[in-house]
Amino acid sequence: xxxxxxxxxxxxxxxxxxxxxxxxxxxxxxxxxxxxxxxxxxxxxxxxxxxxxxxxxxxxxxxxxxxxxxxxxxxxxxxxxxxxxxxxxxxxxxxxxxxxxxxxxxxxxxxxxxxxxxxxxxxxxxxxxxxxxxxxxxxxxxxxxxxxxxxxxxxxxxxxxxxxxxxxxxxxxxxxxxxxxxxxxxxxxxxxxxxxxxxxxxxxxxxxxxxxxxxxxxxxxxxxxxxxxxxxxx
Length: 234
Prior knowledge:
This protein has helices at about 10-40, 45, 50-80, 85-110, 125-155, 165-175, 180-185, 190-234. It is built from eight helices and no strands. The chain has a single domain, classed as Up-down Bundle (Rhopdopsin 7-helix transmembrane proteins). By secondary structure, it is an all-alpha fold. The radius of gyration is 25 Å and the shape is flat. Helix 1 (about 10-40) packs across helix 7 (about 180-185). Keywords: Cell membrane, G-protein coupled receptor, Membrane, Receptor, Transducer, Transmembrane, Transmembrane helix. It is a multi-pass membrane protein. One of its GO terms (cellular component) is plasma membrane. Belongs to the G-protein coupled receptor 1 family.
């Protein structure tokens, strides 16, 4: 990516702000999406829903974006130049727009998967409808994240007069890969339950590991105390 050919000069304060946002989003996005993937795959109640497969696909796409695109973006704005060679330069937009395409396709698939109205609605169908509403919220949030960049690129594309607006709009698009886990936790009881179960498993595993280490340390201490008298008598 040869940035020397780009005539737009961004203010240094704006590029530092963009790099900081990309770094923060990278950490939050990796943690949030990874926790969501683990929580959903370990929750049998959610695994039976067809919608969950699309949610997992969305999370994996966002996780790749946070692991690859955001660190490269942060470096690009810090250095104000592309320093990773032509191969990554070509891969970068593929992953960026691929993430957008996966998000849209998942939303379309979830919409097509929506159950038909029925007088005798089962509990599972009610859950599916709640998940469909959740996906609608996510779709609206993604649209709001990308809309400013679309507007700025249309009305201020050639010889941009407001480069700061371009950076702010770009930051909003990056946020689209971070906000989904927070939406899941805030708007759906089943997802909150899945997160809670995962955290309890992690907490119990840590407690078991600590107790095991404590027991081993106490045994070693008892052994050393037992050996002291015999050593003293000799």
